[in-house]
Write a structure and sequence with these properties.
The chain is α/β, with parallel strands linked by helices and about 250 residues long. About 40% of the residues lie in helices and about 20% in strands.
């Protein structure tokens, strides 16, 4: 039995069909006897839509504390829907906001940094055999105010949980089909790495995920897998347990 942390970006949970696809992927690992923690971002363009709503009210430099309160609502929607989808498939699950998952941060609103993680709640839920669905990108400061970790913060959330729990694997489902030698949208000759080390990523200046998350992976010797389940055929491969994407170690 392994402990697996999975992170799904906003495009992966953009609509009901995709939420159900994520639920199926998650429960396949659970059925094999693994403990599973899932971190999700806000659905699709929700974060951008929320920013636009704020600008309708406060066009220039809206209050950062209130922006955190607003933007964190996107992930709350995602975790509730995914937990429902998992339960619809007949498996136990529980959704947790960042503060419920034990994330304590500093007070730099919209760009907060994690100070510590109290993993007791997550561990207790895993002991109950629940699939734990955690809101990415958010935490709580010493004043009990909601904070957010900035763009890419859901990657950081997933990696931080994996490192804290001593996970066997952290899987990052993103909008690219692995790690490439260059941006494949700009360079048609770019090729995908099957495996790559964190040092190689640094040395080559490759963009894989949030820098804080990448650094945390390296420091904790935590392997991750980066892939895109939306590429044609990838969902079927994932359901069959095939290895796709790029292993970063």
């Amino acid at each position: 039995m392994a402990l697996i942390v999975k992170k799904f970006g906003g495009s992966s949970v953009a609509n009901a069909e995709r939420v159900m696809n994520v639920a199926r992927i998650v429960t396949e690992d659970y059925k094999k006897g693994n403990d599973v923690v899932v971190v999700v971002s806000a659905q699709g363009d929700t974060t951008d839509d929320l920013i636009a709503k704020a600008e309708e009210i406060y066009p220039s430099n809206p209050p950062k504390r209130e922006m955190d309160m607003l933007l964190s609502s996107g992930e709350q929607i995602s975790i509730a829907l995914l937990a429902m989808a998992i339960q619809k498939l007949g498996f136990p699950s529980v959704s947790l906001l960042g503060w419920q998952a034990g994330f304590s941060t500093d007070s730099k609103h919209t760009l907060a940094r994690i100070k510590k993680i109290n993993s007791d709640r997550i561990r207790n839920e895993l002991d109950k055999k629940n699939i734990v669905v955690v809101a990415g990108f958010q935490g709580l400061n010493k004043y009990d105010d909601i904070t957010t970790l900035g763009r890419g913060g859901s990657d950081t959330t997933a990696v931080a949980i994996a490192a804290t729990l001593g996970a066997d694997l952290c899987q990052i489902y993103t909008d690219v089909d692995g790690v490439y030698t260059a941006d494949p949208e700009k360079d048609p000759t770019a090729t995908k790495f099957e495996k790559i080390t964190y040092d190689e990523i640094y040395n080559k200046g490759l963009k894989v995920m949030d820098l804080t998350a990448t650094t945390m992976c390296k420091e904790n010797h935590l392997p991750i897998v980066v892939f895109n389940m939306d590429v044609e055929g990838n969902l079927k491969k994932l359901m069959e347990g095939q290895q796709i994407g790029t292993i970063v170690y």
